[in-house]
Amino acid sequence: MKATDRPFLPYGRQLIEEEEIDAVTSVLRSDYLTTGPIVEAFEEKLASTTGALHAISTSSGTAALHISALAIGLKPGDIAIAPSMTFLSTVNAALYAGADVVFADVDPDTGLMTSEGLEKALHSAGERARALFVVHLNGQTANMAGLAQVPTFDRLNVIEDACHALGGMHSDLDGKMVAVGSNAFAQMSIFSFHPVKTVAMGEGGAITTNDIKLATRLRTLRNIGMTHDPASFQSRDQAFDSHGSANPWYYEMAILGLNYRASAIHCAIGMTQLGKLRRFVDKRSALVRRYRERLAKLAPLIRPLPEVTWCKPAWHLFVVLIDFAAFGCKRADVMRVLYERGIGTQVHYIPVHRQPYYRERYGDLDLPGTDAYYEKVLSLPLFVSMTNDDVDFVVSELCSVLGEVK
Ligand SMILES: *Cc1c(COP(=O)(O)O)cnc(C)c1O
Question: Is pLDDT at 406 greater than 80 in this prediction?
């Protein structure tokens, strides 16, 4: 195929088939556009997929992160530890709850939080450290068993941002492989179903947990803080009549929540997509293997991410580390020329601590692993409907562009 005949290859995109369209139209013909049976079915399917006891759907991954911070009672004066090499929302979640963040550095080759990075962050956070957000970047997990060895890990509320890693596995403390989201080390795991993620539902997110109290609190928080459950009513005089029956109109708000519900329309898409998770993950893995084969001869100037030993990844992004300096070229120019040739690339991520909001709050920080990773990363196209031929095209264009652009 000539380059000009090819459809543009974005760095990521959803695959929507007839089943998703049918699922949406059947919701539109039903009684429930929001809440209702499909939302519960989606949550049950996500719980069984991840092996967690409870799953709570939300309107986005950001919303899920926000209420996870509220659910653990994170508050002003507290510190949450988080990597800077992540999407904005992971860190923002702590700030939404009024807490502060101390950034933990990451491995310069994988972008994943390290035990040393965590230890150093804990040291500067001191007594105020309350929560830890760990990010499973690109589809590989952080070494949770390793992080759990860090003294005082047990005193932290641990939240895994697993938005990149649905469908992956990682080892628990005994070295047994468990599903991402099963919460072997964490109170909660967070997922996003934005169209660029492995499972898409338009906008959507979820939290998994094994703690029934947290699950109940999260359901209340995503529903404006409102409950209809008589067992939890506090204002007995208002809630019950003289015979002790709950008043039929009565609802109660004891905590401040938000409307972060996912609609039934979105959950119908998510439900159908979840049924395809294995196929999606396997196809992405096959494309990654193809990329790795094609790129092998180009090391060390262009390197795919090293594969860590403690997880079975579910690749969300295909990231290469490129020594742009050695090629004598600029990443921006390479991205522009690739774009002109029909190839979308992206940088995941600009370190959060470099954002003006965070610089104003915390000044210029020294996170050498994070900065070294950021210097080199480039995400190449990876999505389910890509072909091996597309992969070969991307690799050959990347090589020729790196050779040409000065
Ligand atoms: C996508 C993503 C989020 C936010 O999810 P949204 O659904 O877009 O709000 C948070 N963290 C990470 C690591 C993500 O990739």
Answer: no
Residue span of the structural domain in which 196 resides: 18-274
User: In which region does residue 128 sit, left (phi positive, over 0), alpha (psi from -120 to 50) or beta (all else)?
Assistant: alpha
149 to 34, 76, 185, 186, 336: CA distances (angstroms): 43, 28, 11, 14, 44
Is 4 within the bounds of a domain?
no
269-318 residue pLDDT tens: 999 999 999 999 999 999 999 999 999 988 889 999 999 999 999 999 99
Same domain, 251 and 300: no
Pocket flag, ligand 1, residue 68 (CB < 6 Å): no
Q: Is the predicted pLDDT of residue 173 greater than 60, yes or no?
A: yes
What pLDDT was estimated at residue 405? 73
298 and 335 share one domain = yes
Q: How far is the CA of 401 from the centre of ligand 1 (A)?
A: 31
User: Is the pTM for the entire model greater than 0.85?
Assistant: yes
The CATH number of the domain holding residue 359 is 3.90.1150.10
- The verdict on the CB of residue 379 being under 6 Å from ligand 1 is no
105: in domain: yes
In a domain, 175, yes or no: yes
Sequence-separated (6 or more) residues with CB below 8 Å from residue 362: 101, 353
**R_g over Cα of the chain:** 22
Distance, in Å, from the CA atom of 79 to the CA atom of 127, rounded to the nearest integer, reads 9
- Whole-angstrom distance, CA of residue 138 vs CA of residue 162: 10
The CATH code of the domain that includes 58 is 3.40.640.10
Ligand 1 pocket, mutate which of 62, 85, 347 (most atoms under 8 A from CB): 62
**Count of domains observed in the chain:** 2
> In this structure, are 257 and 282 located in the same domain?
no
pLDDT in tens, 39-54: 999 999 999 999 999 9
Neighbouring C-beta atoms of residue 363, cutoff 10 Å:
8
